[in-house]
Amino acid sequence: xxxxxxADDRVRTCILSCLVLAASGxxxxxxxxxxxxxxxxxSVDATEAASTxxxxxxxxxxxxxxxxxxxxxxxxxxxxxxxxxxxxxxxxGPGSAVLHDSRTGQTWTLPASAPAAAPSGVVxxxxxxxxxxxxxxxxxxxxxxxxxxxxxxxxxAARATDPWRMNVKLALRFGSxxxxxxxxxxxxxxxxxxxxxxxNGGGGAWADEIWVYPGWDGNGSIIPPSTTINPYGWAHxxxxxxxxxxxxxxxxxxxxxxxxxxxxxxxxTGWFGYAYGGSCPGFWTTTTVNSASYPxxxxxxxxxxxxxxxxxxxxxxxxxxxxxxxxxxxxxGCFTAIWGGMSGSGAYYxxxxxxxxxxxxxxxSNRSTYAEYQRQFQDWVDYDNNTFIPTYGRGSTFDxxxxxxxxxxxxxxxxxxxxxxxxxVNSTNGAANSTWVFGVYLSTNDNIxxxxxxxxxxxxxxxxxxxxxxxxxxxxxxxxxSTPPGNYYxxxxxxxxxxxxxxxxxxDGWDAVPITVTKPDLTVTAVSVPAAARPGxxxxxxxxxxxxxxxxxxxxxxxxxxxxxxxxxxxxxxIASRVVASLDAGVSSSASTPATxxxxxxxxxxxxxxxxxxxxxxxESSESNNTGSSxxxxxxxxxxxxxxTAPAAVSPGSSVRIANTVRNDGTAAAGDxxxxxxxxxxxxxxxxxxxxxxxxxxxxxxGASSADSTLVTIPAGTPLGSYFVCGMxxxxxxxxESxxxxxxxxxxxxVVSATPVITLKVNGLHPTPPVVTVGGPTQVTIDVxxxx
Length: 788
Prior knowledge:
The chain is mainly β. The chain is rod-shaped, with a radius of gyration of 50 Å. The termini are far apart.
């Protein structure tokens, strides 16, 4: 492109040419108002209706929103450009506007009218910079760095900004064949492109359908599983328009096309104004223009012009081969010639106030040294402004359409709130003033339906004029705590009675905002306790709780429970607890907590259980993995007296030794205890018997014994007779045992006089006196009966 200039030269040239042309009166015959005033769109706060109670997540049976049926955009070839020789000799050839309904296949031609007189200067009008207002430093005024040669690559991120977002990529279907073109936004629901992008010309076929991708960033997939197409999604054709000079005669002097859409995406991107008239040669060969497009034809360098990238050039046209044509002298090369896929892209003029008015439409090229752009002519612009856009792009009946739901956060924990807003637009020439009611829904896909989870019902009052829009602030919307973690969409659905077209009252596809719902997931990853403990013992329980979920957990309690089995529930016995103030996703909390084994705990293998969030304070992605346990052997000593030996006879006041053995038959060591030796009148030994002596045992290991020969004294006043000497282990009750009923053993003993007594009876009972052997002094008592 020999006429391209450096960025600074372009700015200087524009300023100078604007001043010179303005001074001569040739710059503009008429400047018409914009379609929508510039500046950020106004906003209104919606009010939520009274709550009907907690919202519970429900799974909807609906399916994702429909996606385009064409092949991947990067794989579709460019629409062939028309032959440069396909032109009539007349500079203002015959014809009239022609329409084609791409939904019904019906085509009709409007009555021809006499060509309008050419204006004496440039006529400018229309345009809208978008809901956020014009970019204060747009790339086509403050030049981006040149990639190579004359064309500049526009980054995917930049394509979402003013003015690049007004440039679109088109996917076309002609029968079973698919092609791509470029185009520009012309109104809220209207795209301007080349005639050969909508019709094959010379009596050829119309496109069966066209998909429009504003500012496409080159990413995303329409092949299942489909992904979001950014930065503004897509729209589909409803009505196509052109001029019979092209559709019937195949004359490239009328290579103009226009497309009405089913979605008011222009309210998100803005759209170019129009320009017609102006001298050529003259104004259009001296005024810098700008153009962005999606080249999709191989230029000889692998990877370039792959149909995914947006490129931009600026400069001036070089010639005027026909009243309706602009000539561009180029040089061979990927970035210095016009290539397939650029068809339909616009060449626009930027005035001193930053307004953009589109005049040229990329039409054809020899891919090397020369290209031509179609000029917008007055009859065409008048038809667009007065017939096609009002009737097919807008309509006269009020139609409220929600777009572009936005969320204050893309990752939202279940149970928390997220701020939302959306753009409500009236893309028609109708108007309405009312209170507008809509529902806010949570969906598992981008098809927002009333079967999805209704989060809130809200309303606001607004007076929508023609082409009116307002940003609706919905405030904080709560995601139900019961929502499983995963990917979701938030969208709105307006009340069906809002307008006469309920088919577009919801935010499907790109207009629903994707969010990721997260939840904490508390799991017990470690539990450690001693191998054994006695009832009543205080042990140390070491546990680790991890948040394996995707959201932070707020404050919760970790409960430590004593259980008879490994199935832990809050119905078990709580023995201790600890509080965790918060726990971020992926983080663990470890602690060692003292806990007391219940005094009545049964012996044997039992379990210490750890339950994270035992009070149910945290809504989790899984409530079934909150426990962990560790076995513990609950033990006690069991003291028995296996052996006890006593003399057969003892005397009151005498001291004797009692051989006794105590053994620990239990499962735990015994602490200090006493073995008591008692004198009992029967073999049932109790501490109520007469204590003879006690001996202390300083603990006894499991299976260990303690034997002793303990000296005891028979109380002096003990009546003579038959008794039992009892041994009682732990008679003071110092040791808690598994069996308290086996602690005793007894041995029979006679308490006799210490001096022998001989009773001599001469009453005939003992006719022979007894013979008593004595070893010392002996007391003899003779009882003589008075009758003897």
